[in-house]
Write a structure and sequence with these properties.
- The complex is a heterotetramer, with two copies of chain A (about 150 residues) and two copies of chain C (about 80 residues).
- Chain A is α+β, with helices and mostly antiparallel strands and about 150 residues long.
- Chain A is built from four helices and nine strands, in the order βαβββαβββαββα.
- In chain A, the strands form two sheets. In chain A, strands 3, 4, 6, 8 and 9 form a five-stranded antiparallel sheet that branches. Chain A has a four-stranded mixed sheet with strand order 1-5-7-2, with helices on both faces.
- With about 80 residues, chain C is an alpha+beta fold.
- Chain C has a single domain, classed as Ubiquitin-like (UB roll) (Roll).
- Chain C has three helices and five strands.
- In chain C, strands 2-1-5-3-4 form a five-stranded mixed sheet.
- The chains are: A alpha+beta (about 150), C alpha+beta (about 80).
- Chains in contact: A-B, A-D, B-C.
- At the B-C interface, strand 4, helix 2, helix 3 and strand 8 of B face helix 1 and strand 4 of C.
- Strand 2 of chain A pairs antiparallel with strand 2 of chain B, so a sheet runs across the interface.
Chain lengths: ~150, ~150, ~80, ~80
Amino acid sequence: MTVRVQTEDFDVGAEIAALRRANPKIGAVASFVGVVRDVNAGDAVAGMTLEHYPGMTEKSIEEIVAQARVRWSIYDALVIHRVGTLKPADQIVLVIVTSSHRGDAFAACEFIMDYLKTRAPFWKKEKTSAGARWVDARVTDDLAAERWRLKG
Amino acid sequence: MTVRVQTEDFDVGAEIAALRRANPKIGAVASFVGVVRDVNAGDAVAGMTLEHYPGMTEKSIEEIVAQARVRWSIYDALVIHRVGTLKPADQIVLVIVTSSHRGDAFAACEFIMDYLKTRAPFWKKEKTSAGARWVDARVTDDLAAERWRLKG
Amino acid sequence: MITVLYFARLREELGTGSERLALPRAVRDLEGLRAHLIARGGAWAEALGANKAVRAAVNQSIASGDVPISDGDEVAFFPPVTGG
Amino acid sequence: MITVLYFARLREELGTGSERLALPRAVRDLEGLRAHLIARGGAWAEALGANKAVRAAVNQSIASGDVPISDGDEVAFFPPVTGG
């Protein structure tokens, strides 16, 4: 398991290739890239700043990935989350999960993303034409994370 | 929507980047890569040949992607499926789905993969130490595709 | 005339990947065509027999036994798919 | 002494990202610490008030109000998270 919090961009293809090289038994690679959108809550977004809680960030993501390992049969997982100043179309977050079978890879990847959104200590501040504003947490994100408690 | 059936390998990072360039509203990119495993049904696999039904292949995948568009709010989808001779660790299939939100991207991507496994006319013939053999369809693949009929 | 295609294990067992066939008058649908081919006996009876998992498409769409066949159609027989 | 950290909107509203604090004798748990900080009044009462969505962590684990606080702990207050 690898967790990286960084200001630099990441290369999805290179990260997938690196995970795959590590294990010839991999049959399935599910991945997710989160991207800065140019609009939120109806306003044009010129950019954003991501703040985090160093130390707790890495710890909480490692806990999330460890939970995924308990629930699904996966080989490895990589999480990269950027912090600092980002602009529209920049990549924010990358999650890659490798497994023998696609069902486990998809489920673990989505689970990690849902928990990242609700448990990992990151905060976004958007620059809009109306000034800078902290992004409010979304109820739909809480619901997305909550549904994993009910599932097998 | 793009569907490609080809003998050549593909570059996941380049394909994701190309889809993203097309639309600044994209907030979520879910992707899946299927990889040739070095073992199946307990036997070492030295390689495989993928046969398909030219014409119907592209048509059936386009239908699958069109169904995904009806069910989820997605911007675009790309499916690349390789045919011909492949060896362990080679990439077989790539599905990428872009959307505003991650839930739609994940669901549509997994839906397309599940239907690809059960509806698209591809057949694998494996080379093992016991000789060449056609891979049998898996009941779990039928079940994976079937569950989408029940879900909202 | 119709075109009949065979793929994968079926193609190997039948020793052919395609044939042009004058549509017999008795054949109205996919099930009728399969019965007509089985009646050839030998590898045909073996590969297409009722105990075998055979899928079919008519004009490149997955089809069940009651789908009608008419002149000019492209029909394909193949095992359950295993791509992905 | 404990360390108290503030993040995002809270950090801005309070005008500070961290402080070292002698643990008051009356403060046993997270809820007690929050009440102690609110009692400072002004921006503290405003930002940490019961009507505000405030989350907290003790020693870098998400914690609820009844989690005990003791000397040497690292406590953090912050808004609901919005990463990903």
